[in-house]
Amino acid sequence: MAERSKGIESSQSFNTYQTALEQIEEATAMHAATVALKLRQQRSMALTLTIYLRTNKHNITHDQHYPSITVKVSFATNSTQELTKICVQALRAIWQPGYNYLKTGVRATGIIPAGEVQFNLFRGYDNSKQQKLSGLLDEINARYGRGVLRMAAEGYEKRWVMKQKFLSKQYTTDWRDIVVTK
């Protein structure tokens, strides 16, 4: 197994400015799910999450806003459900109307091996159901394609698009990218 990361992040710029909380929540939920998957892939759990928003620092005609919040999780987790819930709640705490947001992201730190979770003597914690559900989610998505099964918070119809201006052509996997010669 590869060396365990000290931090895991998922972020992406939007294709256009986003002002509605709902679209930003969907993107943040998608990033939380990506972070959770990466944590499970390396058999780790996170103790701390940082959620952030960015406006376009290069556009001086717009008001600037770079809020972020760091949340210490009660118990280390890699559950998609828990991470999504925490991230969306944190996003609601930092989001402010009236700004043209261009980027959102989720960063997990305080990463520990999944088998080394420290429990609290006074408060029980059983995440076995969430672990089974996350494992099933991973199996179905591995079998039928990424994002086939996802959290409702990620949205059904994405009304926001990631900025993919410099995306490489997929000559071997997409019929539309095959080069045609005459």
Automatic annotation (TrEMBL):
| Residue span, DUF4113 domain | 131-180
Gene3D superfamilies referenced in this protein's UniProt entry, alphabetically: DNA polymerase, Y-family, little finger domain (3.30.1490.100)
Q: Which InterPro entries match?
A: DNA_pol_Y-fam_lit_finger_sf, DNA_pol_Y-fam_little_finger, DUF4113
Put simply, this protein is called: DUF4113 domain-containing protein
Organism of provenance: Mucilaginibacter litoreus
Sequence ranges assigned to domain DNA polymerase Y-family little finger in this UniProt record: 6-121
